[in-house]
């Protein structure tokens, strides 16, 4: 039951995403117009210290008007290595430079609407380099015990699905 995209044409573009209109053929031969959003890859990173605490950001998302815990994240610049982008974003948003990064998972947070892929990395050590350059992106940065993660997710304190998946995976890896 494969849907086939026969063509797509641009509707709108800016440096972060493109809106396209696709002509899609359904398995029964009917056609439909489907809008889609093409996006650059997103790189995400955090660190888990020896006490099994994870570095998180408490931030507001104006689009949904919600507060929640997140990991440092941002778009990958043209030609930039994804892991390097993750390390850059973590240092810019938290003031912590991660040690060697390990790929945790890659998720497609809304694959019915966008081709966005979020590449999530973690490290088991980091060096504090000073106040966050992009401190405006979050109200605060805190070390939070991984053992609290499942309850935080269940209470809705980690509203972004990509962040919840990453934190639950780190909880599993580190605590079993």
TrEMBL record:
One Pfam family here: NUDIX
Alphabetized Gene3D superfamilies for the sequence: Nucleoside Triphosphate Pyrophosphohydrolase
MF-aspect GO terms: hydrolase activity
A Gene Ontology biological process term: ribose phosphate metabolic process
Domain Nudix hydrolase span(s) in chain numbering: 38-171
Cofactor(s) it depends on: Mg(2+)
A GO-annotated cellular component: cytosol
Keyword line: Hydrolase
Record keyword Hydrolase present: yes
InterPro entries for the chain: NUDIX_hydrolase-like_dom_sf (IPR015797), NUDIX_hydrolase_CS (IPR020084), NUDIX_hydrolase_dom (IPR000086)
Protein name in the entry: NUDIX domain-containing protein
């Amino acid at each position: 039951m494969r849907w086939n995209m026969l063509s797509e044409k641009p509707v709108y573009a800016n440096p972060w995403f493109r809106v396209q209109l696709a002509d899609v053929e359904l398995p029964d031969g009917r056609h439909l117009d489907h809008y889609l959003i093409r996006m650059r890859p997103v790189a995400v990173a955090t660190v888990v210290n020896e006490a099994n605490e994870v570095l998180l950001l408490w931030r507001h998302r104006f689009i949904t008007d919600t507060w929640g815990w997140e990991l440092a994240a941002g778009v990958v610049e043209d030609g930039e290595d994804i892991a390097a982008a993750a390390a850059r974003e973590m240092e810019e948003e938290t003031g912590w430079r991660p040690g060697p990064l390990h790929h945790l998972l890659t998720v497609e947070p809304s694959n019915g609407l966008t081709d966005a892929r979020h590449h999530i990395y973690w490290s088991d050590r980091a060096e504090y380099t000073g106040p966050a350059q992009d401190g405006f992106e979050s109200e605060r940065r805190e070390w939070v015990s991984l053992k609290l993660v499942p309850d935080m997710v269940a209470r809705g304190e980690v509203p972004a699905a990509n962040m919840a998946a990453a934190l639950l995976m780190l909880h599993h890896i580190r605590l079993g």
